[in-house]
Specification:
It is a single chain. The chain is of the alpha/beta class. It has one domain: Rossmann fold, CATH 3.40.50.620. It is built from seven helices and five strands; from the N terminus they run βαβαβααβαβαα. It has a five-stranded parallel sheet with strand order 3-2-1-4-5, with helices on both faces. α1 packs across α6 and α6 crosses α7. It is globular.
Length: about 240
């Protein structure tokens, strides 16, 4: 129940195990009971991300957790996250093109699962921690994509379903995400971001670089242990 004594409604939160999805869960938890959704798709750090997911779920006392395997994304390939023949590139934060870590149309696949779950549970809010401004340039992390997907979801579900896809941090930079995470007591120490390693974070992939730069610009120490810490502050 909330402060006014009303029973909380529920929301589905897509939780990868990273700092963006953990903050998104923190924001959703203010108004909603949490249904956590995680997807294994054959990514290199799948087991480590799954651990982070359950750690974050326990932290927020999620009402229900659903873990789905979409291993066909590994079979499709085309990404350095799912195909070990494709090298994980060192970060180039000035790069404007779509990086090789992009998993083709991944968010559409994940959101489709979320919409199916939402329709069967009667939940009409789906939260996803996508970031447009400070992301790696993935085309399925843009506002336009989520707006169009929401329209499609409501066209393809039962009348009266009225799915809403919420992207509460889409306009934030990683610096803003770090600061807001601290403010809302999001469990940064439980999150995992590295694309390459499942023990110590590499510190050199796009995801590590974006995370480290966010902490460095925020003036806050990152609780993760890195193999290499590079100063990305001015990049």
């Amino acid at each position: 129940m909330n402060k006014a004594g009303a029973i909380k409604k529920s929301a589905i939160v897509l939780v990868s195990g990273g700092m963006d999805s953990a903050l998104t869960a923190a924001i959703a938890s203010i108004k909603y009971n949490l249904y956590f959704l995680h997807v294994n798709y054959g990514q290199r750090t799948q087991a480590r991300e799954l651990k982070a997911f359950y750690d974050i779920a326990n932290y927020y006392k999620a009402k229900k957790c659903l873990v789905v395997n979409l291993n066909y994304l590994r079979e499709i390939g085309g990404s350095s996250l799912t195909d070990k023949k494709i090298k994980i590139e060192k970060a180039d934060l000035s790069n404007k093109s779509v990086p090789v870590s992009y998993v083709p149309f991944r968010n559409a696949n994940i959101l489709s699962v979320a919409v199916s779950w939402a329709e069967t549970t009667g939940i009409n809010k789906i939260y996803i921690g996508a970031v447009e401004e400070d992301s790696s340039g993935y085309p399925d992390c843009r506002k336009k994509f989520f707006n169009e997907f929401e329209k499609m979801a409501n066209s393809g579900t039962k009348p009266g379903t009225k799915i809403r896809i919420e992207t509460p941090i889409i306009d934030l930079s990683k610096k803003d995400i770090v600061l807001k995470s601290v403010k809302l007591k999001s469990p940064l120490h439980l999150t995992w971001s590295c694309y390459k390693s499942s023990s110590k974070a590499c510190g050199e992939c796009d995801s590590c670089a974006l995370r480290l730069r966010g902490f460095q610009r925020a003036g806050i120490d990152d609780p993760l242990i890195y193999k290499k810490i590079i100063n990305y502050k001015l990049t």
